[in-house]
Amino acid sequence: MTREIIATDKAGRTRSPLSQAVKVGDLVFVSGTTGYTASGTIAHGDFGAQMRQVMENISAVLEAAGSSLGRAVKMNVILARSADFAAMNEIYKTYFPDGSYPARTTIEARLAREELLVEIECVAEAREVGW
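RE: above sequence
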C-alpha cells in the first residue's frame, strides 16, 4: 500500500514534527488537530472559537486528502476541561447535520500548551468504498 503525506495551507499549522494527515489505502489518518489558524496563531476567544477552528482545520485536511467530515469513521476528542463537554457536543453536531456521527471517544487531559482547550484526531475513508 502506498503512503501519502497530506498537507494544506488552509488548516492550522504548528512547528511540531508531524504530518497533518497520512493517507494509506482507503483511509486518512488526521493528526491531533488544535485551534491553530492558518496563520499559525491560536484561535482566541472562548472554547467555542477553538472548537470551531479545530473542526474547520480537520475539514480542510480531509478535503486536501479527497475526503470529508461526512466520511469520518472515528474521532478522538481531548478536552483540557471536562466542563466544556456540553459546548463541544453542541458545536460538534453542527458539523454532522444529517446526524450521521462517526464513532467517538472523549477524554479530559492536559494538552501540550496551556492555552489549548481542545484537540481532535480523526480517521476517515479516503473515498467512497463500495461493499
